[in-house]
Amino acid sequence: MRKWLRTCGMAVLVALAAGCWDRTEIEERGFVVGSSLDAGDDGKVMLTFQFANPSALHSTDSASKPGGKTYSNLSVTANTVFKAARQMSNVFSRSPYLEHNRIILISESLARRGDLGDVLDVFFRDSETRRAAKVMIAEGEARQLLEATTPVEALPVRYIEKTSENPDKSESISPPTNIGNVHAFLLQDTSFAVPKIALAAENAVATSGAAVFNGHDHRLRGFLNEAETTGRNFILGSLNAGALEIKLNDAFVVFEMKHVARTLEADVSDPRRPVFHVSVKADGNIGESHLNASLLNKAVLAEAEKKIEEKIESLTRIVAEKAQKEYRSDIFEFGKHLYREHYGVWQQIKDDWDSGENLFSGCTIRVEAKVRLHVVGSIQKAE
Amino acid sequence: MTKSFEYADREIGSKEVSYAVSNVVIGLGILTLPASIVVATNSSDGWVSILLGGLIAIGFAWMLTRLAVRFPKQSYRDIAASLTNRPTANVLTLSFAFYTFLYVSYEVRGVSSISKLYLFDRTPVEAICFVFLLVLVYGVSGPSISLLRLNLLFFPIILLILTAVLALSAGDFDYERLKPFFVTPFPKLLIAAKETAFSFLGFEILLFYNLFVNRPKKLGKAVFIGMLMPTLVYLLVFLFVVGVFSTEVVANTLFPLAELAKQVEVPGGFFERFESVFFAVWVMSLYCTAVMAFDVTLIALQSVFPKASRMSLIFLLTPFVFLVAMQPTNLQEVRLFSEWISYLGIIVAWVFPAFLLIAAKARRVKPDA
């Protein structure tokens, strides 16, 4: 009898103790793959989540039967992002699950309105989100971008993500910035730039250019266009490959960069007027030439190299001018360089760097480019 | 005594000692340490503090070892009794037991709070705590020796996963983020070193596990290796989280190592949630820490009250562990709790035994035969 009671007791215990408090059936989860933030009326925020539709995603793989829509976008406006996410449950059958959120788009008007840290707070704070989600600033309305699709990719988010991951090939894309990077920028109070994204045509996105934020108030100052972003990439050393067009004797020549190295040195003999020496070494090939002369000719080659060097220097000059005079924000991480290499000087001037007296706008930036052409292609001339 | 096979005896060798010391030291501290150090120092200079803190801890570990070696196969209480008198020895041992008892409560609370934050969003802390405590009770119900051998099984896995977390985040590591070097004034480094010394609490269990040590001569080396491991692990983890996140982010992150594990992206997509593996293993590590501390509490109490049975002590203590663990209402209070315990531990488990060693040296006391 005692034995029997004991067995029963144990069985009850096992039944009671086993279980999962946090159980959520996978079918009940709304997998958020991307999100966007727009400015709403009266200082509100409009949050849009893109939910993946797993069953439709699956059927596109087999391609036998056409699946339904692979995603659904949902927008809710509230004072805070967190509240907006919660309100989504009122209009959608599944509760949002952010573990797979891969991109966060922020509209231009929202970024201009106030502190970027406030709208992104929940993405840093929540333990469900990942620090690897990419942040981009959308020109115009952010949520429209989440509708842009291409037949090649199943989800708009995938399309945006893949396009923005191209900087190995394109010189005018700002390096991908994830939410962890943004958190660091905000905490360090340094100015920064994040990739810009815009609606290029119907159903197509363009990820070139960059959005500039000042480290002082974390507000969007403005955008850099493609050429300026290229210049910034040269100064920042965040460029590996890409192509530059130059004009040589009224004919186009394309320089295909294979390897770009940058070294940065600061001369702080006058702490309030530091001089930055940026030297860019670019190696590469001729990708295309409309010239009527053979590039094997030493003089022509030297001429081409010189023209490319001039091009690089002028690109950097333009962006430096814009950052110093117009945006007055150190987007080249020069302040960080001073902090790391000239700590004593930095302690004296850090409060007046790109806020306060704005010493950054008065500093000298010297760029010196050195180009070497290796291969001119497999032909000498085309015509 | 002839052994039927290698582990048939109730003794531990150098390897077990090293593993036990490493495993008991690496616990909750590893998650919070980088953040608290970065807050107290400038730039990445905190590694100096880790080294200093490690040296202080190794210094105390050396003294405790010298004390233990003088009295082979004796527990802390017997050692204290032969150096002072019985009542003093009992008071010392009971205060030690009180400290390890609080230590268990703190570990239990810490593991529940952090598991709740990262893993069980809706499960009440009390429930997580209760389940963890049940497993602890199961663990300490067996003989101590089996817990010591459990370390041999768990510790390599813990090291492996930790290495994997670091190796997989090496891609995001940027040496530049560690610059500038040596910009923290020395007093600040010392204050931060205190913080590190706290995270080395735990090795004092050897005062009681001395009972099982089979080759006292090798104890010193074994403890040294056991202490070296956590020092290296702390240094590496610190440099990695700073190199990946930068000091400002680490300072504003509650559990930098957990964030590092979350950020890891294993190619192939299969292990996209690598942090779940990390947490599972980290809970194993905390289990070892807590179960050994619990075990030591029991041994300490039994050495004072030889008549009390192990099982009745367990059932007497467990409800109190639970109650004490539930006292802090938020993370802030958990931190305060840990600070008090750390001060208590340093006095009761490091400084008092160190005094005993001095007394032993001065009076040239040898164990009574």
Topology:
The complex is a heterodimer of chains A (383) and B (369).
Chain A: H1 2-17, E1 29-39, E2 45-52, H2 54-62, E3 71-78, H3 81-91, E4 95-97, E5 103-107, H4 108-113, H5 116-125, E6 134-138, H6 142-145, H7 156-164, H8 179-188, E7 192-201, E8 204-206, E9 210-213, E10 220-224, H9 226-236, E11 242-248, E12 251-267, E13 275-289, H10 298-327, H11 334-341, H12 343-349, E14 364-373
Parallel strand pairs in A: 1-4, 1-5, 5-6, 6-7, 13-14
Antiparallel strand pairs in A: 1-2, 2-3, 7-8, 7-9, 9-10, 11-12, 12-13
Chain B: H1 14-25, H2 29-40, H3 46-70, H4 76-83, H5 86-118, H6 125-141, H7 144-168, H8 186-199, H9 206-209, H10 219-245, H11 247-251, H12 256-263, H13 274-304, H14 310-325, H15 331-363
Helix pairs in contact in B: 1-7, 1-10, 1-13, 2-8, 3-8, 3-10, 3-15, 4-5, 5-6, 5-13, 5-14, 5-15, 6-13, 6-14, 7-13, 12-13
